[in-house]
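seq as requested:
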Amino acid sequence: MSATPIPDSAERRRAIDPAQSFIVQAPAGSGKTGLLIQRYLRLLACVDAPEEIIAITFTRKAAAEMRERVLAALAPGGKTPATEHEQLTRELAHAALQRDAAAGWQIVANPARLRIQTIDSLCAALTHQMPLLSKFGAQPESVEDASELYLEAARATIELVEGDDAVAQDVERLLEHLDNDVARIETLLADMLARRDHWLRHIHGRDRDELEAALKNARREALERVCGIYPIPAQGELIELARYAATNLAAAGRSSPLCVCDELAALPGSADDDVVRWCGIADLLLTKEGNWRRQHDVKNGFPPGSNKAEKEISKSWKERALALIAVLKENDALRQTLHDLRRLPPSAYTDMQWAVLGAITRLLPHAVGQLKLVFQVRGQVDFTEVAQAALLALGEPDAPTDLALALDYRIRHLLIDEFQDTSISQYELVAKLIAGWEPGDGRSLFVVGDPMQSIYRFREAEVGLFLRARAAGIGNLALQPVALCANFRSQRGIVDWVNATFAQVMPAQENIAAGAVPYTSSVATHAILSGTAVNVHAFFNDDHVTEAAKVVEIIKQAQHDDPSATTAILVRNRGHLREIVPRLNAAGLRFRAIEIEGLGYRPVVQDLLALTRALAHPADRLAWLAVLRAPWCGLTLADLHALAALQSASAFDGSERTVWELLNDDARMGAVSADGGARLQRVQEVLRDCIGNRCRSSLRTLVEAAWLALGGPACVGDVTDLADAEIYFDYLEAHEEAGSIPELALFEQGLARLYALPDLGADDRLQIMTIHKAKGLEFDHVIVPGLGRLSRSNDKKLFMWMERPRATFASGGEDDSTDLLLAPIQETGADGDPIYAWLEKLDADKEYFEDQRLLYVAATRARQRLHLLGSTRLVPDRDGVIEPRLPAGKSLLGKLWPVVAPDYAAAASRAMLAHTPLASEGAEAATEEFSVDQSLRRLASGWTLPAAPPRVEWSPPRSMTQAQDQIEFSWVGETARHAGSVVHRWLQRIAADQMQGWDAARVNSLRATFKHNLLACGISDGEMEVASERVITALTHALSDTRGQWLLGPQQDAQNELRLTALIDGMQMNLVIDRTFRDADGQRWVVDYKTSSHEGTDVEGFLDREQQRYRAQLDRYAALMRRIDERPVKLGLYFPLLKGWREWESGE
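struct tokens:
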């Protein structure tokens, strides 16, 4: 076993204690999945049933991986443990297997008993179990991209303006506020609906005083913060300088925020009217951009003086001001806080702001209502709706539903992976699942994640929830914090660089409201490799061409050094690959691009879209020209011009004729070349049938048939293109209506959101993906280009909202310790709304912190080498020396600048000394070298469709049989048959409840329910009393009979209505076992309920005959059960109406 010690082994062992609840911070490469597996195995050894453990992940891939690793640990044999971690896993698996053997679970043979699932599947399961409370009814389809549904609901909301009620007035006000820009309002409403998980709970019952108090609290806390960090020894000097500058400004009649400080006698405090004085001080010390001033002049209250004496005095004051700044500039938090004070919101809304905000907050619930209607009509919902419906299904803490109580009874241990990516609804779901749990009651919550890797705000993830849970627990359950530090992924050179870098990049203090996460260092378990672990490649003046060439060079070198090594190119945005991908193709480097290239950019899909538009709209001239230019026709530009060029009406009257009409014009056809005419004739023959059959079949069928007949598959480059074409056809089928596309623009927008498949001929050695997509993955070499590029600007929201814990926030996380801040979008054409702008700034702060974490995720994917590439501008300093300029703060390079600035300065110096061109004559030449290929790709002249393959002979399969149903009711009447079905259903329910809460009184109280069940089966009123009495008698007998109590009560490994499909005697059969379990002695039983009745004496003889009737059926059950469980099986028939019982050994 390896002697390399694991630095956090004690913490890892503590985290698998089943008696405690934990929240684990697991940095990149720390093996958190391995810890989850160990915890899961430890819990298996101490529960009564595997189903008592629920493990939740956020992706299907992660759930599948966790299930596979648990089963692999439980599988017999395996390699000898090589590490301390592997040895512990083996010991825990051995204990779990002993428990499995004792309880007879047979988990390896029955992996479905492992409750490992995604959070979305859990929510869907909850809504499925409580269809009425969740308000779903039949389970709808969950869709990942619901943008069309949001837009449809937004349009329906705007159409409410046609009414004459208060809602119409609110729509009118919003239209007036945004200059009647309906399209913009649709987009804004759709965006708000997509984010409703965050704001929906905020907009009810909020009055003006409450929201304005939140504004005042924010102003006061900002003032208290600056008062607390301004150094006391420097206060006197600041007061004198402020008074001096303010007096001069007032005397000169200049307008400045500093003028209010002319009578300043003490440092301003934290009262609301002190804001203006602090803003004056900020103007004294800082530039408009928020940097420390390097000089002062007359504009700042420091006049030059008109004579020598005055100049000396002025010089003295300026030197004192710069000396004060030299003392203060060591405190960057002070600089940032002073600058933020300038952007503080006012302490109250204007009447106009409040009116618009009220209209928006009243209107949005109606928009949500319209969205629910759209969901119902379409039978589709988004994941937010599923999560919110799951919350409804569980009820409230003081009024839990039956489902919540049942889950509280069944779930003993809850494990959650990637907890830092939890949304608010998902967090509330967890809180409801564990409502009532107390420390030491035998139940445990185990959440694991890494707030430093929380990068999914765009998916409603809220990192502050992780921080809050760690500080205050969830509900009544305190969580013990565990911090892992071992890094099992990267060599020590990378780990050391990441530790040194991100200690500077990430904030020093945690801030729950802003999502600020401080860095926690890791300890490498792999030795350092020779050579440079992290390479910073500096480029200047947006020289992306040279940067792309460097990427190709790095990849070639990596593959030369180790052909089996894996390399990944990680980018922030897909647009950053514009210069890189063509150079990879030119270099012959095949790669897998994971959700990088848009499906609509693939030539095969562009050609199919043109064909779709042409067949759907014969007058779409551009689409028809694209069809004739596509490879299946390949008309030259000269022939295309001869056929379709617009000419005067006296010539061909082409200005009023469609391209299809021109194809049928002999004069036009005669103007093209002989080769062009032959190509057009073949296309014409195919499309004539298609035009004739428009709207007679689905559009997918029409387009696909045309594509095949034209020879589309013969035009593609490889199988990936064929797969992309199939994706397009499926998309077309899902969006057409009655053989046409209702809104072509929406259709193309949706197509733009789909991604082409990766190159199926490429292996995994070179992959391209976004940083977000790379989370959870690792590669030998990681290349991160485009660090100097900016991210996309955020769109305006209909209103801004933010929850901010007050400065007095305590660990309890009480609702009254949190302020809600709201602001409406600014009026079209008006000056910016100060409250909205301030909230935008706070949101930008959150984004800034998330960008730091995004950079951390990118850097920690590498095992051996990390390459960072980015460009910044070169500018001359005061002395004319060229130096790199500070990158934009929104770029990733700007976040890294404190660490990489020396590398860029050295690179700039080398470039200057070598007279290397920094921008771009060479780049222009390189661009020409990789210009778009304009050559015409087309089928050869005279190409014809290949012969069809021989037909396939087919014979229908043998139908599946349900023999037991035919036997069961072959001789009874309809009333008895339906009564038997209802009895079976309720016996299943009683057995599932293990008879708890069931007695004769409860059965009699359900008489109306039984009648409803029978009515649904088709029982007439005349037969209803007899049938319902039959049901009540059967259930009452089962509850009072000793044998019935044994059958329906608690048993080991019990299952009800177990449905199995098997191949028996060459025939596929569906079988349903009413009840199977193992008794106290471990004996496996298979029992069938029979609602037969008997009139007269000799009941025993009747039961014997029934046993013979059903013996073959139950023997078949036993044979099938032995395929699952090899132990002997006992069979039983239970007759509740007769309190009768027959049993026998299988095989007798």
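The two ends are 54 Å apart (CA to CA).
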